[in-house]
Design a protein that fits this description.
Radius of gyration: 31 Å
Distance between the termini: 47 Å
Strand content: 15-25%
Number of strands: 20
Bound molecules: adenosine-5'-diphosphate, magnesium ion
Structural class: alpha/beta
Length: 702
């Protein structure tokens, strides 16, 4: 009898083993793979194709219509390089396929003349076009030389994956390599999705999904595999968030449930009554505050929907309950605006507001710090300077954070560290598409202000180009003559604040000297001190200025109902969110308002899409969906700060339903097994620890 002894046990590292030691890799190729972000077998498995080519059958070149793209196959008949080096003429190759001969041409690839050899089989992917003599050719196709080796079946006669590449890594090699990795290791993956859940949602098992996403038998199978991965990513995220939420629910917060005298006095002093939406949101917040569990709520509301007043009511509630409360903004300008508003509302009630700013003189700053430390000030307003270590607070009961999406998760965490689990209200003026809100803030409760205060008139938005500038000025003059006011926002100059300033100053001088000689032109920009800015804005508000030239500082800082025109110079350079914010400065009074987007420079397709979207709708929520589609989720938030997780199959918008399902499943799963102790939850637990430990501060897991 022969006994086989396994000589070496399979390395325990398995999926975590470095690629360098795999067959055919070695240090040099490992280095190249590293450039693709691939260090381990697991990374390689997760390097998904960006596309597929159907190579089961090829279209004969002659059957292709002009302008049509397809994968064709041919045998090299002859190659000719441009006669001279540096010539602009193309490299041409003549191929033979089932039905005849055809020519392919490439510009700027003279080396092809050496690479392509007679009788070689080549797969080409490209578009049928015309050369300069109007002959039909395959225009600049992707190509891959077919070698008659044992791996041919990986590259031919099937649907083949097309991978993201980097310099020095060739498609054929990478495909062969990943074929090897997938065949050897796909089965080792332990499925993160518990079997029962996976079946209920009709999702593919992990190993099958890996095989299919890389080497599908049919193109139609790919979708199912991708869905499975999207679901898995969502589930891991949502379980993480559910656990975090659970942990927060155990935190003991201070119930803030005073009689409400301060809020009642504030209401009595307001020149308006709250909208039904504001009332609804306020009652949600008030009942959160009254509970012994820290509130963790996101308040979404379009520009001008009246979030501030709701926030101030929450601040007053905390103060009346004997706590301090802070309001934080992401920029100095926003913080300044809030100080003004909050002081205007609460000082008449006898409260003191401390203001912390980076630009403050040392003495002022010390005074503010002292006021907060001793409790002389019950409310603090500032940027994230407010959560710096030097700031000592008395019984922090509530923190309101404006424009959350620019705050990182870590900052939120350090804020929590300031008090014993203060209530947190997060506000965002850029309405976030629901899919993203779920992803980013799955751990928050959400309130929505979906109604603007009454008396707002719709704003007419027009996209205009340079030749109509004089006509635009004439229109603005007519508005000013009718007693209304206008803003001119200066182009965003990318480089520095100094160049923004210069552009604005020149613009103001030019307008005052020329087209608006008969009117009073003011100027406001970010370099002005708080007081100087305040003076200009107050003058504009008081009607002592007709036209206000501004850099984007007015984006958030000003509220003048009599202003009816917003003219934005070089509008093509601004992002959608910013344009929307700027437009929100008009349409605040009874007069019909206008937003003129003047595009003067070369405008990219994206730029055009943004301007068209602005003209098409005034709904900030709709605009943010468009923005998300144009830019993708990463850039939408500026990936780095946002803590937005990366998804292998992306598609937050297209996979909205899956995200919702994952959220439900995560909630159930965590409710049933909060410690993820059940054996079927082990892989999930490991994945969670590996992927989200830092991001979600999952101290209770792992
Ligand atoms: P945002 O949600 O963009 O922060 P604000 O809180 O700045 O909006 O409110 C915009 C303007 O609307 C402010 O001038 C504010 O005083 C006013 N406002 C808020 N609520 C109401 C209301 N219920 N009725 C009328 N005006 C309101
Ligand atoms: Mg606001």
């Amino acid at each position: 009898m022969v006994v086989f002894v396994t000589p070496v046990a399979k390395p325990a590292a398995g999926l975590d083993s470095p690629l360098q030691y795999l067959k055919g890799v070695g240090p040099q190729r490992a280095h190249l793979l590293e450039r693709l972000g691939l260090l381990t077998v697991r990374d390689a498995l997760n390097h998904f194709p960006r596309d597929y080519q159907d190579r089961r059958s090829f279209v004969p070149f002659h059957k292709l219509a002009l302008g049509e793209s397809a994968v064709v196959q041919g045998t090299v008949f002859g190659v000719s390089a441009p006669a001279r080096r540096g010539s602009r003429a193309p490299t041409k190759a003549v191929f033979r396929d089932q039905t005849g001969y055809f020519t392919a041409l490439w510009f700027g690839k003279p080396y092809l003349a050496q690479q392509l050899k007679r009788e070689q089989r080549v797969v080409l992917y490209g578009k049928k076009g015309l050369d300069k003599d109007r002959h039909l050719v395959l225009d600049n196709p992707d190509y891959e030389i077919v070698e008659d080796d044992e791996l041919a079946s990986i590259h031919m006669g099937r649907v083949v994956p097309v991978y993201p590449l980097t310099e020095g890594v060739f498609p054929r090699w990478l495909r062969g390599f990943l074929y090897q990795v997938v065949s050897a290791h796909a089965e080792e993956v332990s499925d993160i999705l518990p079997e029962a859940l996976r079946r209920r949602r009709s999702l593919l098992p992990a190993s099958q999904a890996y095989r299919t996403v890389h080497f599908p038998e049919r193109l139609e199978d790919v979708d199912a595999a991708r869905q499975r991965f999207a679901f898995e990513d969502f589930l891991v995220l949502q379980v993480g968030l559910a656990l975090k939420r659970r942990r927060q629910a155990r935190d003991r917060g201070r119930p803030l449930a005073p009689p409400g005298t301060l809020v009642a006095r504030l209401r009595g002093a307001l020149p308006f009554t709250l909208t039904p939406a504001q009332e609804r949101v306020w009652s949600e917040i008030r009942s959160d505050l009254a509970r012994p569990v820290p509130m963790n709520r996101l308040l979404q509301g379009d520009v001008g929907s009246g979030k501030t007043i709701v926030a101030v009511m929450a601040l007053l509630t905390a103060v009346e309950a004997g706590c301090q409360a802070v309001l934080m903004a992401p920029t100095e300008i926003l913080a300044e605006q809030h100080v003004r508003t909050v002081r205007g509302l609460v000082e008449p009630l006898g409260l003191t507001v401390a203001w912390l700013s980076a630009g403050q003189r040392a003495k002022e700053r010390q005074a503010a710090l002292d006021a907060l430390r001793t409790g002389a000030a019950s409310i603090g307003v500032g940027t994230h300077a407010l959560i710096e270590d030097a700031v000592e607070l008395q019984r922090l009961g509530l923190a309101v954070v404006d424009e959350q999406h620019r705050f990182g998760v870590m900052q939120r965490a350090s804020l929590r560290g300031k008090g014993e689990h203060p209530h947190v209200l997060v506000m965002t003026a850029t309405p976030i598409p629901r899919t993203l809100a779920l992803t980013l803030y799955g751990d928050l409760d959400v309130s929505v202000l979906d109604q603007l205060p009454p008396g707002r008139t719709p704003i007419l938005t027009k996209v205009r180009y340079e030749p109509t500038r004089e006509r635009i000025y004439e229109f603005v003059r007519d508005e000013l003559k009718a007693g209304r006011q206008a803003y001119v926002v200066c182009p965003l100059v990318e480089e520095t604040e100094a160049s923004d300033l210069k552009a604005a100053t020149e613009m103001a001088e030019r307008l005052q000297a020329g087209p608006f000689k008969a009117f009073r032109v003011g100027l406001v920009h970010g370099r002005l001190s708080f007081n100087a800015k305040d003076q200009v804005m107050q003058a504009f508000k008081a009607g002592e200025l007709d036209l206000l030239v501004a850099t984007t500082v007015i984006e958030v800082g000003i509220d003048v109902p009599n202003a009816s025109v917003m003219l934005i110079e070089h509008a093509e350079r601004f992002g959608l969110a910013q344009l929307h914010q700027l437009r929100g400065r008009v349409g605040r009074g009874a007069a019909k308002s206008y937003c003129i987007l003047l595009a003067s420079g070369p405008t990219s397709d994206e730029g055009k899409k943004r301007l068209d979207a602005m003209a098409a709708t005034q709904d900030g929520f709709r605009l943010s969906e468009v923005d998300l589609q144009i830019r993708g989720p990463g850039e939408f938030f500026g990936t780095r700060q946002s803590g937005l997780p990366e998804f292998r199959t992306a598609g937050l918008v297209t996979h909205a339903r899956l995200l919702e399902e994952a959220r439900q499943d995560a909630a159930e799963l965590v409710a049933r097994d909060p410690g993820l102790r059940l054996p079927e939850h082990r892989p999930l637990r490991e994945a969670l620890v590996a992927r989200w430990r830092e991001r979600l501060e999952l101290a209770s897991v792992g």
